[in-house]
Amino acid sequence: MTKRMEGNWSIASMVIYEYVRLIDCLEKKMETASELSLEPMFPPMIRIARKYLNIALKCDTIVMAAFPHPAWRMMQFSKRFTSATTRITVLINSKFIEREALLESIKPPTPPPKPSQSDKNLNEPSDSEGDEFNFYPSNPDALEINTKLERYNNGDFPMDKKGNLLGWWKAHVKDFPVMASLARDHHACAASSATVDRTFSAAADVCASGRAGLAVRTIKRCISSHMWLCDGVRSKGEFANCQSVFNAAAESAKFKKRTNKANKKANADKAKAAKVQAEKGKK
To answer: Which portions of the chain have biased composition (kind: Polar residues) (predicted)?
Structure first.
């Protein structure tokens, strides 16, 4: 499961699905291995998987990443996790209303619409023989209901679970603007320690010579620790403990020796590459 969840792609939406898939697979194997020597190992494995599935269901970020997946939407929760449906529905509605208000607040002011001919005719006497043929009379007391979230839950524009998630949202951003904004933020979250490790291991080329095979990637919504270290950014708040480790390391003679050695090697490599490029230019 960790292998499938590794990588720099929008995998946060797949966490709950992968746990459910793993539990179903283990339960089938346990039935197949009934009365065999391997049967006792499956119950603890299933118990641990369910434990982490429950943790994932209680994580608002994971839930909000799974809901904007067009293959899941609300059906994944209402069919498999009925006990958590109420809490998840309240969470989704609150996030939707909050994001909708935010998007409305940053919109430029629009001029008032000009009255149309039909609006002008509302004040004129009607010749439609009363209300007999007026099937849709105007009702100023009618409530304006926001059906954008309901429309998304109806399953418009379906997509398979293996489809291009980000491509789907790019194509339907105008159909569901509020949901698209939520999807953009939550699908950028790293879903597993493997992904987080890949993100932060870019700093290995700065602190030490190990793991040099991992190049620095352009990560739009994840923290690039490589750039933090290069620019000397000092962490605060939740990352204060990490900053204290860097501060202590900076005072270490051993650390200075290793960083100086790494900097010399990097400068030598740059000079060598520049020399090769210059020789190619002469030819």
So the answer is: 116-125
